[in-house]
User: Which sequence fits this backbone?
DNA sequence: TCATATTCGAGAGCAGTGCTCTCTGTCGAG
DNA sequence: CTCGACAGAGAGCACTGCTCTCGAATATGA
């Protein structure tokens, strides 16, 4: 049974063990360190496989141990708890969805093309990794608090969207349509400088937040079946959503 | 361990047992039937309590049985599986969020007031019932397919939004701003007549779908912590979101 | 009214889980 | 070469969902 303090401890020990920041040390001095790094990676890979196939709910430390032919207690030498293993998988998922977004972004293209390409890439990744998506954007594990490691890597995907808008704005291509203006007090001041050297005003920031929320939300609806019998062509509806949200943020769609 | 067929069977037996449609029969002929109905309700109430306090992940049939002072095996006389119990709770949650929306809607008020009131009511209910919210809009149980009972009751909340728009439209108060137009093929044709005697065109329907998705999505962001360090005043940001989405659908906000 | 059939509760039991503890062997640094 | 840190295995605890059996209580038909 998990309690809040259990999980907090697990997260802390995870930060200490830190198997993510140094999965395979560049220079593994001793054979033991090398073996440890390799086994850590193997455990993570096996867990990843089970996550992809069966989802987080059915992922168990024991089955991972079985797959690697080791005693379940031995796995605890590498991950102090199941939650710690989950945290590592969460970091991986955030990283991958962020990379999917970044890799899809071609700064030489027009802002509209970039916007659509990134949205589609994020959707593609999510459809291909529904369980990873659920892990990071679905119901959080009870009592689970995201360790600080995750919040940095979680920003890569939305920051890609912000960069496109910043570039468009710099060339005068960001003209949001009129509508209700977001009260500045609603936005965390630190959010106004989320790109170095690039200032968004509160309303622009709010539009960005909503676009990011939309991207995640509409994919969630598709993945979780809320669009069944609602939309007839999910890809088409998604593209329309991307364009709608792009237009809302001020990109010249239509 | 749950397999798809297991769950399908459980859902079917649930539909047969049908403890929701007749929780307490008006005229319980025999004492046995009366006792059965009462105990079913008690189990459901205890499960509800545990769900509210600890969330679905920590809800176990055994702890429900313990709370009621009965053997765990006895509970299976009333609910064929844990998933069946969860399904009953899902139906309850959908019903309640739908009622929260409907009760907040005052048809005599202006469409903008109605819109905002319903949005706020849904948010209030969700904040007060975060685990129930997670149950219906969060990550679905692996392999779980929503039984048909749920899809009807799931529509009450979005239909409340649709009714407001239909009323506004009838009095000429629905004027959506221009923007990308949704291709008709993207929308399921049946969705165009979701209100009896009220026809929405595909683009209006798409805007409705997006508004419904936004309402659920922005609440999910708030509940799951994705707005931490992003927004400074969640209630204020939510109101702005409601207005923005209302304006997008064509209500005269600002 | 009485025998029969159905229902119900309890208990034991199976297979699985997360996690801890102990014991033994191995490896690495002094 | 010795000693301490580390890694693996195994047993064990408490918990889970779920099944089966076995009496006891209850309803039903004759």
Assistant:
């Amino acid at each position: 049974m998990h309690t809040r303090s259990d999980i907090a401890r697990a997260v802390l020990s995870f930060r200490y063990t830190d198997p993510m920041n140094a999965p395979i040390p560049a220079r593994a001095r001793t054979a033991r360190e090398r073996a440890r790094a390799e086994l850590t990676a193997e455990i993570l890979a096996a867990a990843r496989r089970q996550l992809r196939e069966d989802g987080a709910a059915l992922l168990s430390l024991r089955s991972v141990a079985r797959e690697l032919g080791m005693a379940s207690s031995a796995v605890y030498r590498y991950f102090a708890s199941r939650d710690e293993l989950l945290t590592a998988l969460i970091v991986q998922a955030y990283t991958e969805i962020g990379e999917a977004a970044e890799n899809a972004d071609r700064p030489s293209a027009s802002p509209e093309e970039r916007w659509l390409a990134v949205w589609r890439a994020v959707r593609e990744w999510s459809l291909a990794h529904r369980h990873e998506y659920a892990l990071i954007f679905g119901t959080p594990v009870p009592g689970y608090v995201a360790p600080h490691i995750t919040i940095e890597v979680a920003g890569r995907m939305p920051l890609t969207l912000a960069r496109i808008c910043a570039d468009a704005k710099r060339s005068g291509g960001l003209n949001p349509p009129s509508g209700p203006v977001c009260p500045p007090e609603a936005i965390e001041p630190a959010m106004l400088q989320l790109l170095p050297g690039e200032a968004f005003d509160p309303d622009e920031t709010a539009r960005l937040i909503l676009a990011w929320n939309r991207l995640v939300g509409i994919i969630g609806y598709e993945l979780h079946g809320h669009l069944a019998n609602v939309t007839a062509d999910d890809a088409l509806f998604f593209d329309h959503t991307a364009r709608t949200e792009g237009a809302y943020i001020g990109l010249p769609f239509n």
Summary: Chain B touches chain A through 58 residues (CB under 8 Å).
